[in-house]
Amino acid sequence: MISFIFSFLSSVIYLWKNFSYFWLVFAILFFFYYLFERLKTEESSFKQNFFRIWPLFLVFILFLIVPQVFQWTNITSQIFIIIGYLVLYPLIIFYKRFMQSPDFFRIFSPIVFGAMAYFFFRSNLFENFFFKQLLFFLALYLYLESYRYLFELQNQNRSLIALVPAFVLLEFLWVLNFLPINFLSLAGVWLILFILANETMLLTIQNLFNFKHFLPEVIFSAILISLILTSSTWQML
User: Fold this and answer.
1) Which residues neighbour 129 within 8 Å (Cβ) at sequence distance 6 or greater?
2) Closest listed residue to residue 4, CA positions, set 41, 45, 32, 44
């Protein structure tokens, strides 16, 4: 609990010091330690425990960068941080209880990567483009790889189950970025593709994947994407 409090104090100073990366690192490290100690299992290695906490740790990182993305006033940012930490504590309890349930990640994962896609497409296209792509890929790959450890598949030779969809989704992220439509539409299209990939992975993990049954979801997703693209305003830069 002490590390959780220190993380909160570091986050407050991070905002007070006008987004000081020094205090941002402290906030992240304290929270990582708290999360690791809270969710670790004694019989698991550091690597296994790391992947168990990664999905929620990624949420925390996104939470910390929100005030910087939206450039709120200092008071608004501080209120957001206070409310965020109050929400994080019960969220950790909830995550610990359901983190080995595939159904939980059918809801949790699209929320996390919907936010990431929003931030990515909202940002300046040409500012640190390849660096942002690299960070997005690492976050996505580690997230999908965490499924193997959460659902105890690490003894099976299934490393490609995370690498392939992460790479494919990254390519779509790259291509969509150059379409001359608004960033919300782009984020919506990419999120639909992510949900399809996420569902494919979860069904495969559960040994329930059947393309015949999955095909209606693909068709419905294609219709949604078509509607988003046709209803968006196309404007050349």
Assistant:
1) 177
2) 32
Residues making up the chain, counted from first to last: 237
37, 59, 60: which is closest to 49 by C-alpha? 37
Return the SS3 of 44: coil
**What is the per-residue DSSP string for 127-185?**
SSHHHHHHHHHHHHHHHHHHHHHHTT-TTSS-THHHHHHHHHHHHHHHHHTTSSS-HHH
pLDDT value of position 237: 52
Residue 76 contacts by C-beta under 8 Å, 6 or more apart in sequence? 67
Q: Average pLDDT, whole number, for the chain?
A: 85
* 169: alpha, beta or left? (left if phi > 0; alpha if psi -120 to 50): alpha
| Encoded tokens for 26 | 């402290």
Q: How far is it, in rounded angstroms, from Cα 101 to Cα 162?
A: 18
- Give the residue from 73, 86, 89, 88 showing the smallest Cα distance to 16: 73
More confidently predicted of 101 and 43: 101
Three-state SS for 73? coil
Entry pTM: 0.87
Quote the pLDDT of residue 214: 84
E strand or H helix at 125: none
Instruction: Tell me the percentage of the chain whose pLDDT exceeds 90.
Output: 23
Angle 100-105-108 from CA coordinates, rounded to 5°: 125
Helix axes of 2-16 and 46-70: crossing angle, nearest 10 degrees: 30
